[in-house]
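User: Quick sanity check before I run a bigger batch. Here is a single chain. Can you write out its predicted 3D structure?
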Amino acid sequence: MPLPHRRRFARRAVSLLTAAGMLAGGLGAATAARAAEGRLRIAEQFGIVYLLLNVAQDQKLIEKHGKAAGVDIRVEFLKLSGGSAVNDALLSGNIEIAGAGVGPLFTLWDRTRGRQNVKGVASLGNFPYYLVSNNPAVKTLDDFTDKDRIAVPAVGVSVQSRVLQYASAQRWGDKEYARLDRISVALPHPDAAAALIKGGTEITGHFGNPPFQEQELAGNPNARIVLKSYDVLGGPSSATVLYATEKFRKESPKTYKAFVDALDEAARFIAANPEKAADTYLRVTGAKTDRNLLLRIIGNPEVQFKIQPQNTLGLGRFMHRVGAIKHEPTSVKDYFFDDAPTADGS
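Assistant: Done. Predicted structure follows.
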């Protein structure tokens, strides 16, 4: 598939999703936007960072906790790519839960203050994200030229793009925070990983997530890590999160709580059963990822499966400082709902 067509992947996905929602409901966008107790549509993206959702889906944990609360929950999992597509789906009322990077969360929290009031529901855990390049000449950010192209899920919106901007600001100053946006392109992780491993394409860099970044490092002898998200953010951090509107949380409290409780149970299951968790990922996603590679990722001491957000505030303050968002977050409670399981996050 030509690269320009791939770049339109997210936009087409949202259009199809919106059309499907309207046809299925028969009552238009207003009906689709109305939250109802017992209905839960979740948008996820690609990678093992969504393992909590994979386990919850496989074991029907959301349904289990819903039944305990007296609610039969109909759960749907929808696959999208990029924070822009996920945010559009949430605001159009075609999903109740959005799964994307903390960057898209800050963008939507800022845009919807005083209206839909979108906030974080839970983290999907702490994962180090790597900027990998297969260009032998690229060893640091300084080495990228106009001939290079860096693949990210959504340029200027995804958490990978925001971390790259944060790193650019640290390297060249806040006025140059978007310096590498001009050579960034939007591409789903699987396509970007395939291009980097194959080589010979315009894609010479990919800011990805597990397991794609590990596949690239193993699959191309020229591949190397140029940047680690933990180095930019100052330590382990929640890069991928789940978020929702205030309306859904208020109108579907039992469904909302069942979802959070299911995630918490999934996190404990993964920590206690890494091999079963790896098998779950392969079974649910249909991915052809090497099982031993998955086990190494799950067992990586830098990876923690937990729903409490960690080390997210710094990125939000940076985004405000450079004008990417209008409102400055001063506490995690500004952009995460104040729920007991995620309390005392950072």
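Residues 3-126+237-342 form a domain with the D-Maltodextrin-Binding Protein; domain 2 fold (CATH 3.40.190.10).

User: Great, the batch can go ahead then.
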